[in-house]
Amino acid sequence: MPYRTMKGGHVPIRMWTDPADVETVALDQLRNVAGLPWVHGVAVMPDVHYGKGATVGSVIAMRDAVAPAAVGVDIGCGMTAVKSSLTVEDLPDDLSRLRAKIEKAVPVGRGAHKTPIDPSAIPGLKERGWYDFWQRYDELAPVARSRRGKATSQLGTLGSGNHFLEVCADDEGSVWIVLHSGSRNIGKELAEHHIEAAMRLPHNQDLPDRDLAVFINGTRKMEEYRRDLFWAQDYARRNRAVMMALTQNVVTRFFAGKRVRWDDVISCHHNYVAEEVYDGVELLVTRKGAIRAGDGDLGIIPGSMATGTYIVRGLGNEQAFNSASHGAGRRMSRNQAKRSFTVDDLIEQTRGVECRKDSGVIDEIPGAYKDIESVIEAQSDLVEVVAHLRQLICVKG
Q1: How many other C-beta atoms are found inside a 10 Å radius of the C-beta of residue 379?
Q2: What are the boundaries of the signal sequence (predicted)?
Q3: Which sequence positions are flagged as catalytic?
């Protein structure tokens, strides 16, 4: 669908959804960010909804500035997926044992590895540069210094909330692994530290929303933020790579007689900052709840615990700053979902999926999310569908 334009304070807001379907508080957030003097453009994805600090499903392109709250506190959160040579005919009828083995290999919730992961000991893990990566930890903001032990033990862990690890099947019957996670506690600590630092800066005191406080290029605070931001984005990517390798090894051992083979891994951030050029201008592009969808870029757009996931290829639409949605997007808050649904509703809505079916994940029930098919249809000029996956196993914290 062609985008719609909503008037903003400084630049127009391009929307790949009907503004009438967006919460008033989210529209207010978008207007506030569009009124910032550093903003070059704002694009809004069809999964848009209200978020803390800045709107989820928004792409903000700024000149010489960046708002840390517009990245979110889970810096580098994103998706990873890989297709296997297995088919659904290879799977047992009861998937609970495979789910248990995955949960044993990859800690969930607030869990961590009892012994920090040694990446060199994980078969098939292709990530390199681990020594230099951890050396850079000592350069991070002082708030991170006492948390190194936690950061190392949480590497290769899932977390909670909307994070998940799934075994899926595509429409041709091929089996995939899909996971969603970010930079864990260390990313959150760094994000909150810099958001608070930005709010204290003099040039941010008269903003309509203090959550939109920015750092400006050429300042020490900006350089410190960029250093920590890009390290946390790297941590998130490596965290997903470790979890994916651990899960691939579980599946390979579980189906030892099948000689499992794997395609190349697809990976994409959806809470991050990138340096990109549009209209001949060098910009800092913040995607909060959005993936890069440049021409040919492979991406992952999930629905919910039982409504499927789409593997997509970007079409390179510069009006959207080469972006697409990061998922279906919530249609109700977590608290509203807990008030609206019961465990029986969760059991019914996740029928056929091997997953948790208890009160601890009611806020993640499929009914709390927008319709993923409608979200995909609304961005047909941003991405093309490569594969549609359905959940068989869903692991959540």
Answers
A1: 25
A2: none
A3: 326
